[in-house]
Amino acid sequence: MRKLLLITLPLLLIVGCSKKPINYETTSIERDGLYTNWYENGQKRDELTYKDRKFDGLYTNWYDNGQKRFELTYKDGIHNGLLTWWYDNGQKESEGIYKDNKLEGSSTHWYENGQKWYELTNKDGEFDGLYTNWYDNGQKRFEGTYEDGELISEKYWNEDGSVKEVNDYSK
């Protein structure tokens, strides 16, 4: 018991008094409840909840300029729900839904200028359905159809909108 106290007490003092961010995944302290981590400049860095030593609930992370970086939801340590990323200027970067740690359904990604970059559909973590990619000027670049992770057909465009290439693999 005394050995455990001699090991645990200094660790608690170091972690409790440190201004450096804590790596919650490797810190050997019992975790339960809301945790907030801060940058040295005083801006909030992370806010997350643990339940029975696992991520549980909303996990939010910020850039050191105070802008939100990402937000996602966990249940019993498993990523379930909406995941949203932002650029450091506040513009939305991507959005998708996770189910049991895998992308499920539609997800969208944007260029920093706000134009749509690509949009895709996943089923059980695999591409399934339409995948579309755009140039940063808004012109379509690529469109592919997937079935259970396999590419069935694809079409490419040049930046001026003219068709570059068409392939059909379903035959």
Q: Keyphrases for this structure?
A:
mainly beta, 1 helix, disordered N terminus, 171 residues, 2 domains, 9% helix, single chain, 16-stranded antiparallel beta sheet
Extended strand count = 16
The number of helices is 1
Structural class: mainly beta
Beta-strand percentage? over 45%
Helix content: under 10%
Number of domains: 2
Secondary-structure element string = HEEEEEEEEEEEEEEEE
- End-to-end Cα distance: 71 Å
Shape: flat
Q: What is the residue-mean pLDDT, rounded to a whole number? A: 85
Largest sheet descriptor: 16 strands, antiparallel
Low-confidence spans: 1-19
Cα gyration radius (Å): 22 Å
Task: Explain the overall architecture.
- The chain is mainly beta and 171 residues long.
- The chain folds into two domains: 33-98; 104-171.
- The chain contains one helix and 16 strands.
- The protein has one helix at residues 2-17, and strands spanning 33-38, 44-51, 54-55, 57-62, 68-75, 78-79, 81-86, 92-99, 102-103, 105-110, 116-123, 126-127, 129-134, 140-147, 150-157, 163-168.
- It has a 16-stranded antiparallel beta sheet that branches.
- The protein starts with a helix and ends with a strand.
- Residues 1-19 have low confidence and may be disordered.
